[in-house]
Amino acid sequence: MSASELDTLKAELLETIASASDLSGLEEVRVGALGKKGRVSALMQRLGSMPPEERKSYGQAVNAVKVAISEALEAKRATLARAATAAKLAGERVDVTLPVREGPLAEGRIHPVSQVTEELTEIFADMGFSIAEGPDIETDFNNFTALNIPPEHPARQDHDTFYFGEGADGDRPVLRTHTSPVQIRTMLAHKPPLRIIAPGRVYRCDSDQTHTPMFHQIEGLVIDEETHLGHLKWVLEEFCKAFFEVPEVKMRFRASHFPFTEPSMEVDIGYAKVGDEIRIGEGDQWLEILGCGMVHPNVLHAVDLDSKKYQGFAFGVGIDRLAMLKYGAPDLRAFFAGDLRWLKHYGFLPLSVPTLAGGLS
Questions:
Q1: Is residue 102 part of a domain?
Q2: Is the model more confident about 180 or about 12?
Q3: Whose CA is closest to 267, among 247, 284, 245, 251?
Q4: b/e 223-256 (16+ beta carbons within 10 angstroms → b)
Q5: Average pLDDT, the chain
Q6: Do 170 and 268 fall into the same domain?
Q7: pLDDT score, position 357
Q8: What are the φ/ψ torsions at residue 118 (nearest 5 degrees)?
């Protein structure tokens, strides 16, 4: 190759190096020029077949091209590396003058139903109640029969209850309509004395401003040899005072009917309405909050307990209803709508743990 051809090759490679836009493109140019099969490397391989008198001058000329290309590559690589670093820094730039984003402990919220469940657990644990749990899908026996609910009772109808398909034994499992089956399971598994609460989800075919197909309920059960109606009254009074955080409550017990208790009662508490605010413990108006009664002897017989030896009381209240009443939420359906704005307003901070000593709300 003549000197003019070497100069042309050099100029061509230098131009290609100068036009490389990134490091990967520059590497392709380097391999094409100085790699094993590169254009400059191919020229160096000719030295072995050349006459000695030409080899020296030819080698010096090709080596000069190689040095020039190598220096150009190195200079271009440094320029492109600086540009790449600058682009990366610009893309990852952090404005330290911006306020720090609040983390999940500040942004997250505990749902009112979860918070109220914790409040109720704290209150009844202080009275010596333990927590019992059971499955959402129940047998007809646990949900109805053992609770003295007769076959013709409206609660057993398909328009009121969610049933599954009939099993091989002819029974249809049911989405529990209350947490009372947990009481049955507990009495079958353990002997008295018993003092439990059973919080959980329950299901009924109903939907409006104060009813949803799935809601939350908590029930209490006490079984021993000496429990009487006075104990029930004390437990409910102490519960209401602790939950609504008032020194006194006015309560009245109205006769009612539940298949699983006898006698059965609805419980009202006194309140006053001031503007849009409901004040528990004041005024002469009455608000129904729960149902209760002494455990029916038939329920005790269903779990093989002697009704002449044992007696007890039970009560049940809607957790969602308590949350609406205490924290002023007007529509039960909003509890399950998943609206973050609603949760920001009615929710609780993650570290807002309810305690009787520190305050429930």
A1: no
A2: 180
A3: 251
A4: beeebeeeebbebbbebbbbbbeeeebbeebeee
A5: 87
A6: yes
A7: 64
A8: -65, -40
Per the listing, tokens 């000496």 go with 226
Strands 194-203 and 174-175: unpaired
Are 55 and 130 contained in the same domain? Answer: no
CA 127 to each of CA 32, 69, 72, 124, 232: distance values in angstroms, whole numbers, following the listed order = 85, 88, 85, 5, 12
Structure tokens at 325: 């009443």
pLDDT at 359: 66
Kindly report the pTM of this predicted structure. Answer: 0.68
- Kindly write down the DSSP assignment for every residue of 193-239, as one continuous string: PEEEEEEEEEE-S--BTTB-SEEEEEEEEEEESS--HHHHHHHHHHH
Neighbours of 148 (CB within 10 A): 20
CATH code, 239: 3.30.930.10
Contacts of residue 99, defined as CB under 8 A and 6 or more positions apart, other chains included, come to none
Domain count, the chain: 2
331-332-335-336 Cα dihedral, nearest 10 degrees: -120
**Region class of 133: left (phi > 0), else alpha (psi between -120 and 50), else beta:** beta
User: What would the DSSP string read from start to end of 30-57?
Assistant: HHHHHSTT-HHHHHHGGGGGS-HHHHHH
- Kindly tell me the sign of the dihedral angle through the C-alpha atoms of 318, 319, 324, 329: negative
Domain assignment present for residue 359? The answer is no
CA-CA distance, 112 to 103, in Å (whole number)? 20
Residue 269 within a domain: yes
Determine the length of the chain.
361
Which one-letter DSSP state was computed for residue 256?
Answer: E
CB 6 within 8 A of CB 65: yes
The neighbour count for residue 130, using CB atoms within 10 Å, is 11
Q: Which of 250, 245, 269, 249 is nearest to 317 (CA)?
A: 269
Q: CA 48, CA 31: separation in Å to the nearest integer?
A: 22
Q: Mean pLDDT over residues 98-124, rounded?
A: 88
Q: Can you list the alpha helix ranges (DSSP code H) found in the chain?
A: 3-19, 23-34, 39-44, 52-91, 104-107, 112-126, 140-143, 180-189, 229-244, 297-302, 319-327, 340-346
pLDDT at 72 > cutoff 90: no
Higher-pLDDT residue of 150 and 212 is 150
Instruction: Give the domain range for residue 11.
Output: 3-91
